[in-house]
Amino acid sequence: MEEEELIDCYHGLILGALKKCHVYYTNPNFEDYVQIARITLIQCHREEIKKDPTLPHFNSFAYQRIYWKIMDTLREEQRLTLREVQVEPLTLAESMNQTSIDESLLSAEEQIEKLMPYLTKQEINYLIDSLVHQLTVSEISLKYHVSRRAVYNWRNHTSLKFLKYFNEKGSQNEEQFR
């Protein structure tokens, strides 16, 4: 069976799986989801035809695979949407205040750079991943193949060093900090 025939034959199955996922024609990404479902159907058919050419129970198997793929895609999009920073347009008064915020960010970056020599490699990795890449503790633990508890320890040690450093008035007491 060719791909176009396969898609035409199982079009109702694709629409049924999309309906179960609450993806309707009104969804702005509906065509994208249909395309994902078609690709999944073709991949599923190719895999199953290798296992058993008679394809018993293919309809239910394909339906479930399409449903899982669409749900995975929806979850991934939701996760990415939750992480996006919502930026609202600035008014003139807010943009005037923006310069003071930028200055405070610069001073914070300078203070972090002053403290970097006192941090371990893991603590630096934690800072970069949490502040720059905005990774969660779980994602950092997966990235470095350590437990979440280890990442929490990195965070806590980093926080303690920052507190100690800034309580001692920063660079004025660098010798005592070591």
Automatic annotation (TrEMBL):
Biological source species:
Vagococcus silagei
Q: Which NCBIfam families match?
A: sigma70-ECF
Q: Which GO terms describe its molecular function?
A: DNA-binding transcription factor activity
Q: Which domain of life is it from?
A: Bacteria
Record GO biological process:
DNA-templated transcription initiation
Q: What is this protein called in UniProt?
A: Sigma-70 family RNA polymerase sigma factor
Question: Signal peptide: which range, if any?
Answer: none
InterPro entries per UniProt: RNA_pol_sigma-70_dom, RNA_pol_sigma_r2, RNA_pol_sigma_r3/r4-like
